[in-house]
Design goal:
alpha+beta
């Protein structure tokens, strides 16, 4: 028989990650990016920012899929209203692993901004890193994403746009 007092006594509740931790992580890396004038360090921080944003979206979608529990069966019940809000920018679906008899939630980009986020994160994570150009002397503001100056976009503006999108999502979820 399980001794619940022992189990509960062994838990460090301060180590439990809070719901907005991933959003705070995104903001943390953005704050560092706003101060970093070295291109390599900026690129590394940008990669961390992209991964934290992806993590935020994956975490949100997973939470909404398993948000509630059927009191009779114990089966999860998705929060459809929250998933609809998230779906404006990022869709999600359950993916089954038949070998392990497990499932997880996979997200995909719906809005143009999120398509860029997923593309940049993919390049940063799987293709050896993302190109960051210097297009002026005002660093880090003049760091641009890409390899062609005529096609690059401001990295800090992109990050700000992504965080604004996340803020909009959070506001819609909280109304």
């Amino acid at each position: 028989m399980v001794d619940f007092n022992k189990v509960l006594g062994d838990l460090d509740l301060s180590a439990v990650v809070l719901l907005n931790d991933k959003l705070n992580e995104c903001n943390f890396f953005y704050e560092l990016l706003q101060q970093e004038p070295d291109r390599n360090r900026f690129r590394w921080l940008f990669g961390a920012f992209l991964n934290s944003c992806y993590g935020y979206l994956e975490d949100k979608a997973s939470y909404f899929y398993y948000a509630h529990c059927n009191p009779e069966s114990g089966e999860p019940i998705a929060d459809q209203k929250s998933l609809e809000i998230l779906n404006k920018d990022v869709g999600s679906k359950k993916v089954l692993n038949k070998k392990k008899n497990t499932e997880h939630i996979k997200t995909f980009a719906n809005s143009e901004l999120m398509k860029k986020l997923y593309k940049y994160r993919n390049v940063s994570t799987h293709d050896g890193g993302i190109g960051i150009m210097i297009v002026g002397d005002n660093l880090p503001c003049d760091f641009y994403i890409g390899h062609k100056k005529s096609e690059g976009i401001s990295a800090l503006k992109f990050c700000n746009d992504v965080l604004s999108c996340f803020t909009k999502i959070e506001q819609e979820l909280n109304t």
